[in-house]
Amino acid sequence: MTETTLALDTDYEAQFGDYFALLKPRVMSLVVFTALVGLLVAPTGVHPMIGFASILFIAVGAGASGALNMWWDADIDGVMRRTAKRPVPSGRVRPDEALSIGLVLSVFAVVMLALAANWVAAALLAFTIFFYAVVYSMWLKRSTPQNIVIGGAAGAFPPVIGWAVATGDLTSPAAWGMFALIFLWTPPHFWALALFMRTDYDDARVPMLTVTHGRRTTRVHVLIYTIVLALFAVGVGFTQIGGPVYLTGAVLMNAWFLKGAWQIFRRDETMAEADSYAVEKGVFKFSLWYLFLHFGALLVDASLRAAGVI
Fold first, then answer.
1. Where does the pLDDT of residue 202 fall: very low under 50, low under 70, confident under 90, or very high at 90 and above?
2. What is the pTM of this model?
3. Which ranges does the record mark as transmembrane (predicted)?
């Protein structure tokens, strides 16, 4: 970790909530949900107890990744308004505690997932933790404007891990279709945020696209990635896990997302500042629901398929 001047309050005793926040629970909720959907839509069922234990250990692995990320990024988190109140930069949790928690939980999650499910799923979980903590956090995030593009793979693996829990297989196009859905969603989601957060990434010297190539280029990239995302999202509806509910929802949601991306593309900074980046904020807020709605639709179709309705 680079040098930082974190102000630690030696009189403060960390609470359970501080350690829980270290695990990035909001990110964890998306990981848990997409992994659960990946498990449930797979063609091979698992015993409910094995499924429950597997999702629990995937969640622990996601939390471990979050703790390692907060340990490494404490210096830049303290600079950015959006992250300054996180447990480590705010001084509520010591950096060495965050590192220890992250490492212990990583080993625990991988070993227990191997015992509960299989080594294929466990190996992919281990790779995911490594990719997020080392490849993304320690390397890509501070070295290239492609940080979000490549680093998005870390958040895209959970449904594939869930699929592997059920099948022990990593070759299904349907599983990698779910991966592509998250992977392609990540750049426009974060770039919309970067557009209205304005100086945060500049202040932290993080080479986000808005910093290295400017806001005009970022707006173009938001549109391009959203177009590609829409094609893949609708395409998932034609795989073995797709169905009428998903396909209908995907068409409607991606039409809205494309409309928002087009509006972002047409704007300049004068227009954006005039309405306090309302369009960019609106697209970002919708993107927060985008994956939950898509994966929820996959789950509905799987339920209908199991009931013999479709």
1. confident
2. 0.92
3. 27-46, 52-72, 98-116, 122-140, 147-166, 178-197, 218-239, 245-265, 286-307
Residue whose structure tokens are 């990024």: 73
Residues 90 and 124 in one domain: yes
**Long-range contacts made by residues 171-176, C-beta under 8 angstroms, separation at least 24?**
172/240, 173/239, 174/41, 174/236, 174/239, 174/240, 174/241, 175/38, 175/42
pLDDT grade for 3, boundaries at 50, 70 and 90: very low
CATH of the domain at 37: 1.10.357.140
Report the C-alpha gap between 285 and 279 in whole angstroms.
10
The CA-CA-CA angle for residues 186, 18, 157, to 5°, reads 25
Q: Is 9 inside a domain boundary?
A: no
Judgement on whether residues 92 and 211 belong to the same structural domain of the protein:
no
Same structural domain, 261 and 193? yes
Residues 78 and 40: beta-carbon distance below 8 Å: no
